[in-house]
Amino acid sequence: MTIEELHRDRARAGSFGSAAGDYDRYRLSYPEALIGDLAARNPGTVLDVGCGTGKAATALARRGLAVLGVELDERMATVARGHGLDVEIAAFETWDAAGRTFDLLTCADAWHWINPAEGVAKAAEILNPGGTAARFWNTYSVSEHVVEALDAVYQQHAPEVSQMWRPRSDTILDDLSGDPFAGDPRFTVEEPRFYGWEYSFTSGEWAGLASTISDHRRLGPERLAALLGAVREAVDELGGTIRSQHETYVLLARKN
């Protein structure tokens, strides 16, 4: 299944709620430079789509922005509300905005779970003229010796899943002509933006992060536990930490 088709896999899309606490603990947030650039657009109102536990929304709220979250999973929303966010439970495509409109729509690591045609139509409905839809994703990469060690673990315990340190090649950036916003006359697409940064994970943090990835969670409790235990052991043998290079890429579309 390509990334453009993931929204059809509703079971996988709904797999995060069972690990909402781990998701909030281990998933990384987003670069302050990106959050600052979004805040610099001076949006009066922000809608964070698929807000999860509030990683992007809380960062935006700390900049003094008025942020409303929309989240399909009640368990994820409960964690986000614990951070002081206002969250409504719904799929974005069918969410009732009740006449409300917004200057900025953000969607962090979640747009691939949304029906693209319906998502663009909803964005056009709720964005004010001149408002921006900002979709962004974090990617991970590690050094070759780490890749070799983790490859051996995955080959033994879960050869069918995607290793998170190797970003998928079939992202929307590979062919921007496939971006549904690019072909819609209601929007003008801006140049993609990229933000590079680094993070050092302990073995527990790396395994915890892996445990929140949707295809990992579908392994089932026993296989997942065995995989994560082996991952921790492999990282400990490498010295106990992994230095990961990250790139957050951003797609921006302004409503005409």
Would you kindly provide a written description of the structure presented here, covering whatever features stand out?
- The protein is of the alpha/beta class and 256 residues long.
- The chain contains ten helices and eight strands.
- Strands 1, 2, 3, 4, 5, 6, 7 and 8 form an eight-stranded mixed β-sheet that branches.
- Strand 2 (67-71), helix 5 and strand 3 form a beta-alpha-beta unit.
- Helix 2 packs across helix 8 and helix 8 (203-210) packs antiparallel against helix 10.
- The two termini are 33 Å apart.
- Mean pLDDT is 89; it is low at 6-10.
What's a concise summary of this model?
The chain has helices spanning 10-13, 20-26, 32-39, 55-61, 74-82, 116-126, 144-157, 203-210, 214-217, 221-237; strands at 46-49, 67-71, 86-89, 102-108, 127-141, 187-189, 193-202, 241-255. The protein is of the alpha/beta class and 256 residues long. Helix 2 crosses helix 8 (203-210), helix 7 (144-157) runs antiparallel to helix 10 (221-237) and helix 8 (203-210) packs antiparallel against helix 10 (221-237).
